[in-house]
Structure formats: structure tokens, C-alpha cells
Amino acid sequence: MNTQQILEMALNMAELEDTPADSGIIVPSDGVKRVMFGVDIDTADLLLAQQLKVDLVIGHHPVTDCPRANSYKVMERQIEMMTQVGIPVNKAWNLLRPRMEMVDRRLHSLNYAKTGQAARLLGMPLMNLHLPLDIISENTVQAHLDNCLKPTSRVSDVMAALNELPEYEEPAGPRVRCGRPDDYAGKVAVRMAGGTTKGGGEVMRAYFEAGVGTLILMHIPEDTLMAAREHGIGSIIIAGHMRSDSVGINAFIRALEGEGLEVIRMGGVIDA
User: Fold this and answer.
1) % helix / strand / coil in the chain, to the nearest 5?
2) Where are the domains of the chain?
3) DSSP 3-state assignment of 260?
4) pLDDT tens-digit profile of 89-105?
5) pLDDT tens by residue, 15-69
6) What residues have CB less than 8 Å from 33, skipping those under 6 apart?
7) Would you say domain 135-241 falls under CATH 3.40.1390.30?
8) Contact 85, 212 (CB under 8 A)
9) What is the pTM of this model?
10) In what order do the strands lie in the sheet with 126-128?
11) pLDDT tens digits, residue range 196-244?
């Protein structure tokens, strides 16, 4: 396979027509048979890949060049997800825009070219797949919960259902961060794709006021969590960052292996 075919496979699995801003091919390759896949990739990992004689390194989190510098743009997907539960689009935009601008300012100051330059100097093919695999994680977890839960399920039932997925085994498995295990779960919404969950406490409140009872997130900033607790109108389960990332990554790795590729998991990917 080549890197373009691998990118298109990820887009198809996530039902995306265009390559999102946080994903892309940095150093292309036409003859990929052996892949090293990591959640986070840096120069040392590229040297490891060279020692392991792989044909391609795939990083999940944006590591370099345009995928990292422009990754704030994928936050616009959160607007679509908010409108799906009944939040007006203008309200969603007004709540998210300040956070998008903040993330843009933060990314603008980073040394985002470093890893890409190292890959080119080493002649090591490199690509990023972020939003597509997060969408696969989100869809997989949501479908699993929809199949397991009932209208009268409680937050503890949601936790039990999450723990049925092999990626969520302890340690660092799901935690109830807002609400209590014996609370009724209500409508459960999995939100894992969209660049960041730093939408702020008002975004969490907008979800709850729109009828969502429990939010499932990969991670949450402390200030957002504190604000959600103060509102006191919904539950939040933090499923775990590396473990949630691994749900989508493993699904994609299995697809690559189905095409005859050998894939080495590393850099935080949970082998499940």
C-alpha cells in the first residue's frame, strides 16, 4: 500500500469526504508493508522506527507542519455534534469560538516543524491520523452503549458497559468525574472527536440543558470540570485519553492488518 491509500482508508472508515486539518501525509511512501503506530511521535520514535526497519510511522496526535498548526479548525465539528442534540447552531458557535481562538493562539507559538524536519532528514515516511480515528472511537463507543443501556440505566451501568470494551480495562480506566454512580444516566452522548474537549463549562451546561444526561469524554480540563459540577445538572464520565484513542486506533490497525500490513503498536497505544 501507499500512504495515500492508507489515508483514504481512514477517511472512509470515519465517513469523511475531505482530509481534516489535523491529519495528513508528511513524508509519503509508495511501498508500505511494515508500520509503526503511536499515539505520540517524536524524533526519538523516528530513530526507533529506523532501527526496527519499518516503512512508515503513523502518529495519532498531530506532530508537525500543517496537521499541528491548523488542528484547531477541527473544533468546528463540535458545532455539528451540539446541534444534533438540539443546541441552536448560533449558540454552539458563540460558545466554541472563544476556545477555538485560544487554541489557535497556543498552537501558533509551537515549534510545529521539528518532527517533520527530522523525518525528512532520516528519509522516514510519516503521516498523522487524528480526527478520523477519534470519530471511529466515538462511533464505536456510542454504538456499544446504545446496544447495552436502557432508559432506566444508571451511571454505574454506563461504567459497566464501558468496561466491557477491552481498551478500558484498568489501570487508568473510566472514572465518574461529575455526578454519582447511582444517578440515572438519561440520554448518553459520547463526545470524543473534535480536536479538544476544552469547550468550557458553558458547553457542558448547554448539553445538559438540551436533554443530555451523561457525557462520555476522553479528558476534561479542571476548570471545565469544576464549572460542570457547580451546574449540578448532569453526569460526566471521563473514559480515559490513551484508552479512548486506542479504540479507534486498534480498529484501524485491524483494517491495515486485513490488507496484509504488519503493524507495531507503541507510543501509548493499548494493545487490546
Assistant:
1) 50, 15, 35
2) 3-130+244-266, 135-241
3) coil
4) 999 999 888 888 877 78
5) 999 999 889 999 999 999 999 999 999 999 999 999 999 999 999 998 765 555 5
6) 55, 260, 261, 262
7) yes
8) yes
9) 0.93
10) 24-27, 126-128, 56-59, 34-38, 262-266
11) 655 678 899 999 999 999 999 999 989 889 998 988 889 999 999 999 9
Q: Are 179 and 235 in contact (CB under 8 A)?
A: yes
Exposure string over 252-265, b if 16+ CB within 10 A, otherwise e? bbebbeeeebebbb
CATH of region 3-130+244-266, choose from 1.20.210.10, 3.30.420.10, 3.40.1390.30, 3.10.180.10: 3.40.1390.30
Query: 15: burial class by Cβ within 10 Å (0-12, 13-18, 19+)?
Result: exposed
| Whether the domain at 3-130+244-266 and the domain at 135-241 fall into the same CATH topology | yes
**Cβ atoms of 184 and 152 closer than 8 Å:** yes
Quickly state the pLDDT bin for 87 (edges 50, 70, 90).
very high
Q: For the beta carbon of residue 66, count every other beta carbon within 10 angstroms.
A: 17
For residue 125, give every residue at least 6 positions away whose Cβ sits within 8 Å of its Cβ, in sequence order, or none.
3, 27, 28, 29, 32, 55, 56, 57, 119
C-alpha neighbours within 13 Å on the C-beta side of residue 170: 3
Span between the terminal Cα atoms of the chain, in Å:
24
- Name the residue with higher pLDDT: 4 or 230: 4
Query: Among candidates 46, 39, 43, 4, which has minimal Cα distance to 25?
Result: 4
